[in-house]
Design a protein that fits this description.
alpha+beta, Alpha-Beta Plaits, 4-stranded antiparallel β-sheet, 4 strands, globular, Transposase, sequence-specific DNA binding, RAYT_transposase, transposase activity
Length: 184
């Protein structure tokens, strides 16, 4: 794997995107979005994750993140994806109103069979494609705008701060769902 797709600078700020296997639309249900937010909050409080911006779409997540001194983003991302997938898959199996249960578990199971790193299921695609950002450059503003405009481009809302599962509201009036370490 190329160095451009690794967390090479332990003090860097990164734009990270990752998706469910097969781009399965898991996050159309609030219960699964909330479980992912719980995982983000845990990593922020217990693992040293610094969350600067985020959005959860129907089948993928975008984050702008860094970490506390002495921590490693690659380890935090591994733990975030491992734990969130465990919790979400458990909820899919147990959620009585999940009409897509058999279909989703079948697809996650087929993906898991293809990957020797998994015991049964694979929820997330393995890559994160971290891109290091400089908060002092236009690239940072471009990425944060892209992240916050994702729900607008998808036709879900008229303006980014109207989308509940995003930090765009925090950049407007600090009333988001989870605490962020706001930049800029």
């Amino acid at each position: 794997m190329s160095i451009k797709y690794k967390f090479s600078n332990s003090e860097g700020i990164y734009f990270v995107s990752f998706a469910t296997v097969g781009w399965i639309d898991v996050f159309t249900r609030r219960v699964y979005r909330d479980l992912f937010l719980e995982s983000l909050t845990y990593c922020s409080k217990e693992k040293g994750l610094r969350l600067h911006a985020w959005v959860i779409m129907s089948n993928h997540v975008h984050l702008i993140i860094s970490c506390m001194e002495g921590q490693h983003l690659a380890n935090i991302m591994r733990d975030l994806k491992k734990y969130s997938s465990y919790r979400i898959l458990k909820e899919i199996r147990e959620y009585p109103k999940e009409s897509r249960k058999d279909w989703m578990l079948y697809l996650f199971g087929k993906a898991g069979e293809k990957n020797s790193n998994n015991k049964v299921f694979q929820f997330w695609q393995q890559d994160n494609h971290p891109i290091e950002l400089d908060p002092q450059t236009n690239m940072f503003d471009t990425r944060i705008n892209y992240l916050h405009d994702n729900p607008v481009e998808a036709g879900l809302v008229v303006k980014g701060s109207d989308y509940l599962y995003s930090s765009a509201i925090d950049y407007e009036d600090d009333k988001g769902l989870i605490e962020i370490d706001r930049l800029g």
